[in-house]
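Posting here for the record, re: pyridoxal-5'-phosphate.
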Amino acid sequence: MGTIYMDHAATTPLDARVLEAMRPWLEEWYGNPSSPYAAARRARAAIDEARERVAGLIGARPSEIYFTSGGTEGDNLAVKGIAWAREANGRHLVVSAIEHQAVLEAARFLERRGWELTLLPVDGNGLVDPDAVGRALRPDTALVAVMHANNEVGTVQPIADIAAVTRSRGVPLVVDAVQTAGLMPIDVDALGCDVLVISAHKFYGPKGTGAVYVRRGTPIEPLLHGGGQERGLRAGTESVAGIVGLARALELACAEMDQVVPGLIRLRDQLAAGILERVPDARLNGHPTQRLPNNVHVSFAGVDGESLLLNLDLAGLAASSGSACTSGSLSPSHVLLAMGMSRELARGSLRLTLGKANTEAEVRQAVELIAATVERLRKKARSTARML
Ligand code: PLP
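Prediction output follows.
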């Protein structure tokens, strides 16, 4: 049996059509877009075209799109960049407790330098209450950050309702859409956000390329200083192939969303139902309906998630215990703890995220593997406990 890959929230394979679009910019038209000759002008034109495409796909203006090295840089740029630009106004940040580390750690970095950080709580399904955002705002609040969908449990936030609150108080709203871009339609005006962050490798594009939308007029400082690339907001020679690849990948994902997503939802629901049916004491985490179309996140009482992952890996199933960046660490997920889960149950968690190549047969195999592995680990844990 080959490996069953169910970790698409960590990363996706590069779509062959994306690689095709990228290839000329690596092999033939390799000029530096800032250089003054024809090959370079072609590269510049490719970046401009990619910017127009990305803008068109998310309802933005091309001048509001900035290319970055990915989601982590985008989140850091958004949080630190706006905080520094609005520092004269105050040094208070409002960030949801379940943000990705790229947002949380950027905010904590500022906290260590004297900023005040309010963490927004979430309910048992991982939802942020828009009214709680209103209560957390102060005259000195520099920004609010609430992610579009959570990378661990898949809960999709009511961004438009949150934006209505932040907008009425004149505070910029930063939205990390790394997990939703390519899986859900994104329109920056419908969402009402001021900054939106995406990353190409989550939607079958290349790793190491992302984009940030910054609504016209939003104050923001650069993180990187150097040449004047990206209109002074992001210095550094552009990854032309990466940018072309991001635009092509987003274009394909948006064009094929109506075909792909219903299939993902069907597989997701089969996977969740299969696990809940076959494994006693299994619990599905995240919002029952407001969740990513490809996310199944479950907890198993009396099971160590790290051992579960290792055993599933040996059996040929690639999954995650939470976000890729924290797997390997023994501390339970900050997302699950914020949702009110006990540390013990949080440690027995498994995230499965489906992609367009997964099949029903793989879902059935995954259910059997998980059921057998959980049973074996529980038996082992019980016999170890008896021996002690
Ligand atoms: N934000 C979210 C919600 C993510 O899931 C990830 C990656 O897992 C990132 C940010 C970081 O993106 P990148 O891997 O492009 O740095």
